[in-house]
Specification:
alpha+beta; minor pseudopilin epsh fold; 2 domains; Helix Hairpins
Length: 192
């Protein structure tokens, strides 16, 4: 189980303590338990989580491994509210400006992708092997690693991520997430 690096109520009012307790404490725990059961006594048991996500065929093992990785990245990408700095800088800022023109354009592209993704899944700011940044949609437990990309910042658009706080207002939830992103963490994920 990934360790939560801040108190469960630290992201409020953007993400409530009740949502963290449910999303992290119950939902992610179920993925971890299923993953551990499915990987036991298989060829994947000695692989890293990332290797499993890249190599496992479609099916229950991949679904649960992908969701464990996605959620581990998701929960570590936030900083307690209000953050000291909620805008990227340094190398990440330069890359965003080079590939999207500016930070506001990146936000618009991610918000649009998250608002229009049909069903459940993830929207990722990811880095291609060439170093270029891209916004991609991943359904269910898919992850950019399976597309030879590095996951940088992920938006969970499964209803369990926002329904207690925002009901059916997914777009509002996505807009509020920008307030708690730990941009130093996101930059540390870059392949440079």
């Amino acid at each position: 189980m990934p360790v939560l690096i801040y108190p469960a109520g630290a992201l409020a009012p953007v993400i409530s303590q009740a949502t963290i307790e449910y999303h992290y404490g119950k939902h992610l725990q179920t993925y971890v338990d299923n993953f551990n059961r499915l990987v036991k006594d298989t060829e994947y048991e000695t692989m890293t989580l990332r290797e499993i996500v890249i190599q496992a065929p479609e099916g229950p093992l991949l679904n649960n491994a992908g969701q464990v990785l996605n959620h581990a990245l998701y929960f570590e990408q936030f900083t307690p509210y209000p953050p000291a700095n909620n805008r990227p800088n340094g190398t990440l800022q330069n890359s965003i400006h080079f590939d999207f023109g500016n930070f506001d354009t990146l936000k618009q592209k991610m918000e649009e992708a998250a608002s229009t993704l049909f069903g459940s899944g993830w929207v990722w700011l990811a880095q291609e092997e060439s170093g270029k940044l891209a916004v991609i949609n991943c359904h269910n437990g898919d992850n950019p690693l399976r597309h030879k990309m590095t996951p940088l910042y992920g938006i969970d658009v499964w209803e369990h991520a926002y329904y207690l706080d925002y009901q059916n207002r997914r777009a509002e939830h996505v807009k509020r997430l920008w307030e708690i992103v730990d941009w130093e963490m996101i930059e540390s994920r870059l392949n440079i």
